[in-house]
């Protein structure tokens, strides 16, 4: 399989430059600023997965065509076994025809662990000509940074630099970002997630910097995150198919469209997913686009579902690659926005109604499903549960009136000391910092 840039395709270039998987993973973003997408799509039927019942077993079959012809092809099985060491349970809820796909059983308690661990397992195995340390630059609205930090912590030859909006992530998210040390640096930026994302993008287009410093990305634009995220949708949809012989529908909490793109891609290559509905917080870029067909990027708004505070979803170009025609896209997909007040009431009602404590992001999806049911939508639906509620204790606990038990992996991270360096929302300062701190071991914080 070869990969091409969404922008080359958008400009209908006769022969777009195609690269192999390893090159696409190393680069993160395509040189023209577009996102890498597969040059062609494989096609699967449920029978192709006969005998495969675990997440890694399904992932090995599903991802094989995407690795075909690349140096990593022979490593795919080992990569899946290394990355997918925790389950993604499809839990039946006490309401009829309703499930939760729990994606928060990894080391940092959010779905980002699947993609980050898979990407790390890939990058670790790619032979690079460059002997210098590879810098992985990540902007995070909360959960990506810690998942990437956990996945790359102490991986030789790689350092991770995380930018997050100071004060706009939950206290436990902030702690997780700063608690690794060693080859991981956390920068708390006096700005929004959009500022962090802009600074990272600027670094990627800074050719002089990139000559001085090998850079790679681990944001949701990376193929190394997008591709493996298909695995849990494939797993859940196949489990449901085997039991009921019908497709499973999903409501996906959505910010940068990484998780939802994986669901759409899994369906496009033949997995038995039914409808996919996007659930957003008060950041209405996608709901407005589906309403009026006009995509208008805007500044993000801070909400209590902070990992979805995105005003210009970075995977939007991939969405348009998969659905170039606006009219048919509007017919295929819906996005529904949920405000903070509704998120709060959904969390408060969650224990009684579902026997579940929802994180604010999962509550967004739960409310969207309730809205769909009120419109008399039929069929089996899964709420995609993207994070553990204990990550958002300051929001969740006052609403449910008691403490949320902390999963052991999260507790272990919270017990470590944490440190983050302040930074202005200015690219020049980031650039300077990156160049001065080329050796992560030279003056790493020691507290
Ligand atoms: C990142 C994140 C989301 C949004 O996922 P995207 O891939 O950016 O759309 C939703 N919920 C949680 C808990 C997250 O960490």
Describe the 3D structure.
The relative contact order is 0.15. This protein has a domain at 83-111 and 224-407: Rossmann fold (3-Layer(aba) Sandwich), CATH 3.40.50.1100. It is of the alpha/beta class and 447 residues long. It starts with a strand and ends in an 11-residue tail after the last helix. Helices cover 43% and strands 15% of the residues. The chain is built from 19 helices and 13 strands. α7 (171-178) links the parallel β6 (158-165) and β7 (184-190). Bound molecules: pyridoxal-5'-phosphate (PLP). Pyridoxal-5'-phosphate is lined by residues 110, 112, 142-143, 220, 253-260, 307-308, 361, 386-387.
Question: What attributes characterize this protein structure?
Answer:
single chain; about 450 residues; alpha/beta; six-stranded mixed β-sheet; five-stranded parallel β-sheet; about 45% helix; disordered C terminus; binds pyridoxal-5'-phosphate; Threonine synthase; Thr_synth_N
Helix content: 40-55%
Our Rg estimate from Cα atoms comes to 21 Å
Largest sheet: 6 strands, mixed
- Unreliably modeled segments: 442-447
Taken from the alpha-carbon principal axes, the silhouette is globular
Determine the N-to-C terminus distance: 46 Å
**Beta-strand percent range:** 5-15%
How many extended strands?
13
